[in-house]
Prior knowledge:
Layout: H1 2-6, H2 13-25, E1 43-45, E2 51-53, E3 58-61, E4 64-68, E5 71-72, E6 79-81, E7 87-89, H3 90-105, E8 108-115, E9 120-129, E10 132-135, H4 136-142, E11 147-148, H5 159-170, H6 184-197
Parallel strand pairs: 4-9
Antiparallel strand pairs: 1-8, 2-3, 3-4, 5-11, 6-7, 8-9, 9-10
Helix pairs in contact: 2-4, 2-5, 4-5
Amino acid sequence: MIGAVMRPFRNSRAFALAIIAFATMTSGALPQQAAGxxxxxxxxxxxxxxxTFETGDTWRQAGETFRLYGVQSCIRGTSFANAIxxxxxxxxxxxxxxxxxxxxxxxRCSAIARSGAPPLIxxxxxxxxxKTTLDLGTILVTQGFAFxxxxxxxxxxxxxxxxxxxxxKAHRRGLWASPDLPLPNAILARAAGSDAAAPPRP
Length: 202
């Protein structure tokens, strides 16, 4: 499945974007707020078994929850019209592509931050496609099955992902082919605005 999807990367702008983003993510140019405090980044593989995919950007393994840093998948429970006009759960479409990509590219990841209780571990991952190594988040965003995550002010957490998202949108790749794509950042921003406007609970 993924092999067929990945072939368009070859000799294309999308492939170049993925290479550039991987170089950026592995050069130490991580956003300051995501940097580890001890200078050492735990490195781990995503196994082929014993993994539970929660969304198209978040998974559980070895009793811990991980999320791709700077990536926002489609939200489960939202829907879009596919190529034949049928309504499909957007979050499930993101999740299915993510799970297949993990299976086919056997990523190796670096944990870069831990937050919350129970903790959520943010990570960047390197995917292996043939003899080429690419940033996993860039593949998801460039192929149109995830988006550049935004911060509380609506700014992209990772600028290279924002560039990849603009390219996927312009070429109508993946979920961008749908005329009624439920953009997750817009949905999350509206939800945050509603929460902020709500009166405090007694």
